[in-house]
Amino acid sequence: MDDTIVALSTPYGESGIGVIRLSGPASIEIAQKVFKSKKNLRDVPSHKAIFGYIVNPKTEELLDECLLLVMRGPHSYTGEDTVEFYVHGSPVLEELIIKLLMELGARLALPGEFTKRAFLNGKLDLSRAEAIIDIIQAKSEAGLKSAFTQLQGRLSSEIKPLMENLKDLIAELEAGIDFPEEVELSYESIGERISSIIERLNNLLGGAYFTRLYRKGIYCPIVGRPNVGKSSLLNILLGEERAIVTPIPGTTRDTITESISIDGIPLILIDTAGIRETQDLVESIGVNRTISSIENADIVIWVVDVSEPLREEDLEIEKITRDKKRIIALNKIDLANRLLYVKDLEMYGPVVEVSCVTGEGIDRLRLKLKELLVGIPSPELVVPINVRHEALIKRCINRLLTALEGINAKLPIDIIAGEVWESYNILGEITGETTSIDIVEEIFSRFCVGK
Ligand SMILES: Nc1nc2c(ncn2[C@@H]2O[C@H](COP(=O)(O)OP(=O)(O)OP(=O)(O)O)[C@@H](O)[C@H]2O)c(=O)[nH]1
Ligand SMILES: [Mg+2]
Question: Contact 383/158 with Cβ under 8 angstroms?
C-alpha cells in the first residue's frame, strides 16, 4: 500500500457537489499541487475544511472553487493520509481533476479499495467492512439497521470471545501433548467446553434467518388458479398498475416481482402465472416458475374467486402451499353471484375477504400480513449473520462435533487439538484474522468504486 489511490466517491452525474478522495502516502503532496489557498496543506490541521481553488499546475488555470479536507493517518477512514476535495458536481470537472491527480502520481482506485485499505490497516475487521457494503446497498429501514448493528461490531463481539475460548483450549491441549506427565487433561471437561461453544454458535445461527429477512425481504408469492385476480391484487397492494390484468385466463405468464414495506421490513410480492395444466409452452414455463417461487416462499397469498366453486386446480394449489405460512384472499366479494364463503375455506388457514375492484378488505389483508410478521424481532436485537458467516459458523460447528466424537472415542489428544485448531481458523475467517487474500479480494470487489 505504498501507492496513492484516487476515485470519485459520489455517484457519477450532475449533482450539487462531488467528492474526490485521495488516499496513500503521497496524497497531501499531490493535493497540494492542484490546490491553491493561503495555507500550505502540510501545515493545516487534520479534519478541518479549507477553502481554496483547484488549479491546473501546468497552465496555472483555475478550474473550480472548492473545500478540501486533510485527514492524517492513522485517524482517517483508510488509516492512511487522506485528502477529500468537495468540488461542484460536474462530471466533466470531476474527470478533469481526477486526470490531473493521476498525472501527478495517483492511481485510480479499484472497487472497495479504500475500505480494503481500512481493513488491511486494522481500522475495521472483515465483518464490519462487509457491513459497509450492506449499508450502502440497504433496500429497507430494517436492512439498514441490521447492517449498522454489524458495523458497530455486534457479530465480532460474539465471535471474538469464542475464539479466545478456543485458543485457551488449544493451549491446554498442546501443553497436555508436550508435557503429558505434568498436565492432566480430562476428556470430560474438554467435551463440556466444546459443547458450550457449539451451543453458543447454534444460538448465533438463529440470527441468519432474520438477517436475510431484514436485508433481502420476506418472499411472498401471490398464487392461485388463472383469472382469480392475482395480478389485480399485486396492483392494488402496490398502488400502481404494474401487472397486466385481463379477463382472459392465463394472462400472466412470467413472474413479476415488486417490493412493499411493512413496518420497515421489505415484503417482496411476486405475481405468478396461474397454476393449471396447459399445452402452451410459455405458460407452462411460467407455471414451473410459480412452483419454484412457492418452494422459496416465506409467506404465500393464495387467491380464490368467490364467484366460482373450489375446483380441482384450487385444491392442487392448497396442497402445494400447505406447509407454508399462508393467507387466503377470498377475492371478488363485490360480485353478486357468490358461491364461496369464509367457512368453506377457514380450515385451510386465515381467510380475508377482499375485492380488488372496490378495494374493500385490502387493509384487512395488510393487517393479516403484518400479524404474520409478529415475532420477527427488531433488527437491533439480532446478531447479524450474513450468508458467508452462516456457512462458516456451520463449518465450525461440524469441526467441533468431530472433535466431540473424538473425545467420546477417547482418541489421542493431538487429533482433537487439530480439529479445535481448524474450528478456530474457520471463526477467524468471519473477522478476517485468518481469511485468505482471495476471499478478501472477492468481498471488496462487491463494493463500488470510491468506497
Ligand atoms: N368483479 C371483480 N373482478 C375482479 C376482481 N379482481 C380481479 N377481477 C377481474 O378478474 C379478471 C382476472 O384478473 P387478473 O388480476 O388478471 O387475474 P389473474 O389471477 O392474475 O389471472 P392470470 O394472470 O390469468 O392467472 C380481470 O377481468 C379482473 O378485472 C374483483 O375483486 N372483482
Ligand atoms: Mg395475472
Answer: yes
Is the CB–ligand 1 distance for residue 307 below 6 Å?
Answer: no
CB 321 near ligand 1, within 6 Å: no
Q: Is 408 in contact with 191 (CB distance < 8 Å)?
A: yes
Half-sphere exposure of 26 (CA within 13 A, CB side): 15
Answer whether 333's CB lies under 8 Å from 353's CB. yes
| Paired sense of beta strands 218-223 and 265-271, if any | parallel
For 245-257, give one letter per residue: b (16+ CB within 10 A) or e: beeeebbbbebbb
pLDDT digits (tens, 9 = 90+) for 336-353: 999 999 999 999 999 999
pTM above 0.90, yes or no: no
Q: Rounded to the nearest whole angstrom, what is the distance from the C-alpha of residue 60 to the centroid of ligand 2? A: 64
CATH numbers and ranges of domains, the chain: 5-109 (3.30.1360.120), 134-212+386-445 (1.20.120.430), 217-373 (3.40.50.300)
What band does 372 get if pLDDT is binned at 50, 70 and 90?
confident
Pocket test for ligand 1, best of 245, 290, 332 (most atoms within 8 A of CB): 245
Neighbour-count burial for 397-434, b at 16+ CB within 10 Å, e otherwise = bebbebbbebbeeeeebeebbbbbbbbbbbbbbbbbee
- pLDDT for the residue numbered 183: 76
